[in-house]
Amino acid sequence: MRRKKKSEGQIWDERMKRHPSEINLLYCAGRDIAPRPSADEHLIPYDIWTNKAHVLMLHKQQLIPAATLTKILRALDTLSRRYLAGKFQLDPLKEDVHMNVEAFVEAEAGAEASGWLHAARSRNDQTTTDVRLYLRDRVLDLFGEIEGLIGKILSLAAKHLETPMPGYTHSRPAAVTTFAHYLASYAQALVRDLDRLQFAFGLLNQCPLGAVAAFGTTWPIDRNYCAGLLGFESVQINNLDCITSRWEMEAEVASAVAFFMNHLSTIAQDLLFFSDPCRGFLKIDERYLTGSSVMPQKQNLDFAEVTRAKTSLIQSYAQALHAMARGMLSGYNRDSQWTKYVIIDLFEEVHHASRIFGNVIASLKVNADVMLRHTYSGFINAVEIADFLAQTKAFPFRTAHRLVAKTVKRSEAADRLKLSTLNQVLKDEGHSARVSKKEWESLDEPVKRLAMKQHLGAPGPRAVRAHLEGLKRQRTKHRNWLTMKLANLNTAKKELARAMKKYL
């Protein structure tokens, strides 16, 4: 009986035993066939939010009457409902999201009401505020996803504290380590990414609204009130800097994301390397593999290869954002319009990355026996033997290094060091020192060699366990920070709703 197909449309489906992950397919397909929304479509909910805060401030400052405020707020609420229902589209002839929103308010509330929307404001400060609100959400989303990825890495690492494997330099076997040590290195790097995003968020979470076109206004506005309704922690004070630095927040965030993607790219390459059938240390769950249009046997780690490409692209985005600001006169320049496109595209590229890697890590099959077997070949106990000779036989390390190198040269056919060969080299070199069978046992067994490596940051089980505990504490600290920031934004939205309720 023919096996029932698990998914439609995949020509390589017959090779797989499990459904492919939908997000993996989307991540790997990229922009091949999936359309992307316009840049300003991403900003619609944020422009509605800034408009609400702005008109509430105008009324608070007795610049518009309550009746006008009510008409505007009702129109903006209607727009919000239509947007969420997918029934609002931007009209390109109205140039941007700001003019589209104003036109909608005019159609709903009349020109007399909508005509006040732009009082004491320019599209300069409006746009940069919208983009900051957008970036703030994207940073917090990514922060939470990375924190979740770290959790999955730490969970797997705790299971492999005593799983020996070869460590590599120059893509060649170098010294014995553990799989937990590798995983802890990933977690440590990702914690730094959280630190960078947290720092970027602090710079980002300052309100530029009220800067107008860079030189202030004669209207008696209350910038602190608007900042509070929008969930900003402070006001970016100097009006000129608010507009001149429009590119800077995008570049700051892009740089942090580029570091993160570099770390994912390293993890991706390790997964490719360790899951190579010729090595077989790891097996990737089929849900995160794809097949070939011509070779029926293939199972490909496309997500890992795609991540390397995305990393390169995101690095170029970060560089472009820095380059766009070079040589611009203080104040608004149309060049900065393109920073919005770049940062939005950047977040489109990074979308799903953390989730896919988290799911791949959580579902990894670790072939511990294969890893262990490889720790007996490639002479990867050579450095520990050299260290042992220097520590116990009174050889200078460079002499010990030379003696072990000679032993490796004589042992190439066997692909592993032998006690008899080492002692013969010692004898031939005119040294009286010898290594006993009991001493050799500790040098030959990878588990025993690992037990010798217990200093801070070493791959020995006790050292890695202590490191994992420290990483867990750092993860908890970052998770608490995220919870606090999300709560602050939720409080601001509730305050906005309370302020609006009086007039609706």
Brief account:
This protein has 504 residues and is mainly alpha-helical. Helix content is 62%, strand content 4%.
Which features would summarize this protein structure in a list?
504 residues; mainly alpha; Fumarase C, Chain A, domain 2; two-stranded antiparallel sheet; two-stranded parallel sheet; elongated; disordered N terminus
Description:
- With 504 residues, the chain is mainly alpha-helical.
- Among the domains are: 124-374, Up-down Bundle (Fumarase C, Chain A, domain 2); 382-451.
- It contains 20 helices and 6 strands.
- The chain has a two-stranded antiparallel ribbon. Strands 3-4 form a two-stranded parallel sheet. A two-stranded antiparallel ribbon has the order 5-6.
- Strand 3, helix 8 (223-229) and strand 4 form a beta-alpha-beta unit.
- Residues 1-7 have low confidence and may be disordered.
Low-confidence stretches: 1-7
| N-to-C SSE string, H for helix and E for strand | HHHHHHEEHEHEHHEHHHEHHHHHHH
CATH class of the domain at 124-374: Mainly Alpha
Rounded average pLDDT: 92
Q: Between the first and last Cα atoms, what is the distance in angstroms?
A: 65 Å
Physical arrangement of strands within the biggest beta sheet: 1-2
Structural class: mainly alpha
Helix share of residues? 55-70%
The count of DSSP E runs of length 2 or more, i.e. the number of strands, is 6
CATH topology of the domain at 124-374: Fumarase C, Chain A, domain 2
